[in-house]
Amino acid sequence: MSFTDELLASKFDDIERDIGDVIQTTSNRALPSIHIVPKDGHPLPKGPMPDYVEHREGVNRAGKLSAEAVVREYDAAVKEIEALGAELTGVAKKCEETVAGVHSMVNEIKELAANYREEGKRYFLQIEECSLMTSEVRTVCEALRNKIATTTMAA
User: Fold this and answer.
1) Is the distance from CB of 55 to CB of 64 less than 8 angstroms?
2) 49, 68 contact by CB (below 8 A)
């Protein structure tokens, strides 16, 4: 007997021992009931199989049912993935709308800043104009005072 055969034999002995242990521990408990599906009943979800698959000839009923169960599970997952994609598309659209709103607000803020800048410039010029006018009035008043003072001293 080869090493592989001995190894496999010892593994099967271990498995048989484990099965025996399970049977002994569960013999005291009631076994679960088995749900029998009537011949006309179908254990898989009702409805047509996905149109991208079809059974091959020669596949037995168990193979067909197994393949059908697997493809239906995959198809259900695909539908959930597609729904997630649609949800993400909706979220992306809302995000794009938000970004467009932000760009619009940024333009309004820039316009507001430009208006404030112009108003500040207008006040700056107005204050300087008042300052120039005040200096001119002061100069005229001083000249007038000097003129009055020289005429009063001469008289």
Assistant:
1) yes
2) yes
Is the model's pTM score more than 0.70?
Answer: no
CB of 44 within 8 A of CB of 64? no
Helix/strand/coil percent split, the chain, to 5: 75, 0, 25
Buried b (16+ CB within 10 A) or exposed e, 71-102: ebeeeeeeeeeeeeeeeeeeeeeeeeeeeeee
The Cα–Cα gap between 93 and 105 comes to 18
Token pair 């010029």 is found at 125
Burial class (CB in 10 A: 0-12, 13-18, 19+), 68: middle
Q: Which pLDDT tens digit goes with each residue over 5-19? A: 665 566 666 777 777
Six-digit token string for 81: 């993935």
